[in-house]
Amino acid sequence: MILQELITNLNKVKKEFGGEINVICATDDEGNGFSDIYSQPTPVKRLTNESNFTSSELEFEMENSQVNSIIIN
User: Please, what sign has the CA dihedral across residues 58, 28, 23, 5?
Assistant: First the structure.
């Protein structure tokens, strides 16, 4: 998913339910657990196109022109 798709979908939810609802995330794609989101979005450069990867495949300190992903939790 790209950032604009996420923003569009969140705006639809906000319009229907308001902006004062809690945001949570699933611990996996099967919904086996959930947790609150505490962190602000973090722009990063992702060095792999794999769907599963480790933090060693991200660069956290970079110029804006290198950012290609955002960590949301």
Answer: positive
Q: Which residues contact 36 (CB under 8 A, 6 or more apart)?
A: 22, 23, 24
End-to-end CA distance of the chain: 15
CA-to-CA distance for 3 and 33, rounded, in angstroms?
24
pTM value is 0.76
pLDDT tens per residue, range 37-51: 988 998 888 888 888
Burial of 64 (0-12, 13-18, 19+ CB in 10 A): exposed
Domain boundaries, the chain: 39-73
